[in-house]
Structure formats: structure tokens, C-alpha cells
Amino acid sequence: MSTRRAHASDYIFPAVGWVVAVGVPVVFLAVFFLLPTLTLVGRGFVDEAGQWDLTGIGDVLGRARTWRVIGQTLWMSSVATAICLILSLPGAWVLYRTRFVGRDLLRGIVAVPFVLPSVVVGVAFRSLFVEGAPLGFLQWDGTHTAVIVGMVFFNYSVGVRTLGNMWVRLDPRAEEAAAALGATPARVFLTVTLPRLMPALASSAAVIFLFCTTSFGLVLVLGGVTTSTVETEIYFLTTALLDLRSASVLSIVQLIVIAFSLWLGSRARRAGAATQTMRTDVRARELRRADLPAFAVTLTVIVGLLIIPMGNLLWRSLHRGGSFTFANYIDLADKDAVRVLKDSVLSATARSITIALVAMVTAVVIGILVSIVVTRRARSRSGRIAISTLDALFMLPLGVSAVTVGFGFLIALDKPPVDLRGSWWLIPMAQAMVAIPLVVRVVTPVLASIDPRQREVAHVLGAGPARGLITVEGPFVMRSLAIGAAFAFSMSLGEFGATSFLARPATPTLPVTIYRLVSEPGAVEQGMALAASVLLASLAGVIMAVVEMRADPQQHMERRRS
């Protein structure tokens, strides 16, 4: 086995293997992402007759309402991002640079919002802010403030984990030297640590801002009639006014904003990698008295921002008309409980689970194929460019709102040769397209870390491509694959942006059902919305908890050897 061969190609696949591994994902991406997105963008540049016409862009951008919506989107997202970063700094220090009893539990609680559906979070905070609720005296229901609080809830974990993962790898000798020269802890942080964290802060800010601008379900539930973002305006123009051209122009504006955010985040990550000295042997130290202020802030945020809203959601779901009752949960099985629904909530739940399973399997299959291809070493420069291009193409859905994906499906997949207007598969394919980049990002680093010599040894010993993948790479990738599948399932189960465009009135998913219920003023509808939100949050949370509790396959193998 030559060294040159090992570096030229990590593993030799037959031509048919490459055709399948590359062709299937590319066709899927072309049909379910590029075609809808490009059709949507193109709709903004043509008139109703299909002729090239740019006057529609000027008309939409000339409206005062358009700029009011864009302004609201930008300022609410900016304020929420700033608050997230301020709160995340002490959280990242306490949870990643110190150790104490219960730290892992607090880390787990902080990670919970990442897998919660936006509709559930909206309902949870609305149950806190409505009149008669614990925080009803603040009169935040239907205000910008409520939306910003919900955005902070969602993205606090992003800031803590991004900053913490970088902070725990910073070489501590610079801080130690400054302290030895007499600098106070505050001065060490401001003059030494904070400048070194700036790349992570900038990267976190870009990602959090991106997530805030695409908080569709959250804004729809918490914002009321006075709060609109670009996404909710697209939804309003499409479903209420049937103004597809104006909606397309706003989608283009959103794409530009998102692309700019991703570009800033990418630059910040590259700057951090180029200028910082990272170590993997930095150990967390015991919690000290000087850390107590940061610990107090972190604990207050976790309890006040994360635990209380979800606890209040559960408590209020067990009440109706001021009395303790299980009626809200019992009514979930009754299709005639309310007039706004044509089917029971449990039927919608079963439908959502089925759709999420199909979306998960699709995302995992496509994600595995993409991960296998992008972790191979090409023999030529053109091959390396092709692999990098494929990797970049499958990251594009991360930079496109789910609302844009759903709207694109609506206007692009409605005529031959791809006519899926009446197809059941439309929703799971849209959800899979949103989840695939996440699967790729979870699986690819693990595949890339496998020593290529192991693949070469298997090849020399006669193992075919399929057997080599299963026996050599399979044990390493199983845990990351399970996590990717769990994320895909949870994301699909709670997906609301794309599904809100595609779900039929008679066959809604659980998130769409919750939105219909919470939009009604009756006590029965509101109570059922709370109970259904608890059900949806429990399903998503249990799936992630089960996966996280599974033993690492590699550790299991080591225990068996011993």
C-alpha cells in the first residue's frame, strides 16, 4: 500500500457508486431547493404575463409599509442579538471554564430551546404575558418586547455554546501573565480575554441575528396584529392578498439579509482560526468566590428565561376557566371538541410523526451520501473543486428561510414535469430539505476524522466499498448519525414555516393545529393549544434526550475489548 495512493483517494469507489453518491443528492437539491428558490427569485423580476419587468421591485420597495416591516425585522433582531450576547458571556464562563456539582444538568437545560418548535415557544411565552397570567401586568402580549424575549429564549443557548466552545480552548497563559503583572480580574477580561473572544462574538452575533430574522412561528404567535417581520409579511401577502409578486420581492430582500449575515459569520470564524492559539488541554477550574456574580446571573437567566416559561406552560395546560382539570388533554382526542379543527389533535400528531419520520429518513440518506462524497480525497484539482462545490451547495438551505422554501414549493412545483400540488410528499420533502444541512454538518466531521489508512487496509484485505463503509466507518459514525437523525426528526416535527404554506386545511400538522387553536379566543381552544404545545415539546425533547443518553459506540467497543 503506497503512501501516494493513500493520499490520492481515501477509498476507491466504482463508477456506479460515485454516480449514486453524487447524482441522487444533486437531483434532490435541484428539484426541491434550487428550482423552488430560483423560481421564487425570478417571480420578482417578471410581470403576470411572464415578461421581464423590474417595476415590481420598485413598487414594493417604494411602499412605506415595506420599509416599516424591514425596519421592525432589523431592529428587533439586533436588540435580541445584543441581549443574547450580553447574557451569554457569563453563561459561557460558568458552564465551560468552571466546574461544580450540577453543571452538566444546567448545560442540558440551556440546550433544550434549540430543539423546541417555535410555535411551542410562542405559546409558552404568550401564556405568561396574556391578561390574568403571572406576567400579564407587564402588558407585553402582542408587543415587540414579547417577540424579543422569545428570540432571546431561543438563541441564548447558541451564544453560550459558541462562546463556551471557543473560550474553553483559549490558551490561558495570556490571562495568567496579565494577572501576575497586577491586573484586576475585570481588567484582564476587558483587555485580554474579550479581544480574543471577538471572533466568536462576531460569529455568534451573525448566527443569532440570522435565527432572529427567521423566527416566523414565534412572531406569528407573539407579535399580534401590530408586529410584522419580513417573513410574516410574506405569509400575509401570499395567503391573505394572493400578491405573489410582492411576496417574491420581499423574499429576495430576506435572502440578501441572510446572505450578508452568513458572510459576516464566515469571516469571523476564519479570523478566529487565523489569529488565535487554541489548546485542547485547558481544564475547567473549581468555581470560586470571584465567579459567584457570573454564576448568579447565569442561574437567574436559566430559571427566569428558560425554566419558568416552560413550567408555566405545563401548569396552565392543566387549567381551564381557573380550575384544575385534565380536560385540555382529554379534548386532544376529540375531533368535535372545537369548530376550528376538522380533525382531532391526536390525529394531527400522528400525521406529524409520520411526516417527520419520512423527512428524517430522507434527510439521513441524502446527508450520508453528501458526507461520504465530501470526505473523500479527489485525485485531481477539478475533483477537489467539484467536492467543495457540492459541500457548499448543500449548505445553501441553511441560508434560506423555511418560509422561502415553502413559498418556493408553492409556486414552482405546481406544473409538469414536477407537479406535486396534490401530493402528500410535498411537506416531508420540504422539511427534509431544511434538515439535510444539519445532518451533513453533524456527520461530516466524524467521517473526516477517520484515519484514511484504516480504509486502505480494509481495501487491501478485500473488503468492497459497501463493506468497508459499514465495518470501518460505521462504528465511528453511528453516534453522530443518531444525533443527526434526532435533530432532523425534531426539526421536522416542529417545522412551521414551510409547512404553513403547504399543509391542507383538512390535514394540518401539529404545529399548524396549535397555531389555529391559539388564534381563537375561546377558553377551550386556548387550553387545547397549551396542552398540544406540551405534547409537541415533550415529543421533541424526549427524542433528543434518548439520543444523548445513548452510550458512545466507540466507548462500548472499548468496554467489550476489556
Please give the structural blueprint:
Layout: H1 3-8, H2 15-43, H3 55-61, H4 64-97, E1 98-99, H5 103-111, H6 118-129, H7 144-167, H8 173-180, H9 185-213, H10 216-222, H11 230-239, H12 244-275, E2 285-286, H13 292-317, E3 319-320, E4 323-324, H14 327-330, H15 345-374, H16 381-393, H17 402-412, E5 414-415, E6 418-419, H18 426-448, H19 452-460, H20 465-493, H21 499-502, H22 510-518, H23 523-549, H24 553-561
Parallel strand pairs: 1-2
Antiparallel strand pairs: 3-4, 5-6
Helix pairs in contact: 2-12, 2-15, 2-17, 3-12, 4-7, 4-9, 4-13, 6-7, 6-10, 6-13, 6-23, 7-9, 8-9, 9-12, 11-12, 13-23, 15-16, 15-18, 15-20, 17-18, 18-20, 19-20, 20-23, 22-23
Describe this structure in words.
It is built from 24 helices and six strands. It starts with a helix and ends with a helix. The strands form three sheets. It has a two-stranded parallel sheet with strand order 1-2. A two-stranded antiparallel ribbon has the order 3-4. The protein has a two-stranded antiparallel sheet with strand order 5-6. The model is unreliable at 1-12 and 551-562 (pLDDT under 50). The chain has helices at residues 3-8, 15-43, 55-61, 64-97, 103-111, 118-129, 144-167, 173-180, 185-213, 216-222, 230-239, 244-275, 292-317, 327-330, 345-374, 381-393, 402-412, 426-448, 452-460, 465-493, 499-502, 510-518, 523-549, 553-561, and strands at 98-99, 285-286, 319-320, 323-324, 414-415, 418-419. Helix 4 packs across helix 9 and helix 18 (426-448) crosses helix 20. A hairpin with a 2-residue loop joins strand 3 (319-320) and strand 4 (323-324). With 562 residues, the chain is mainly α.
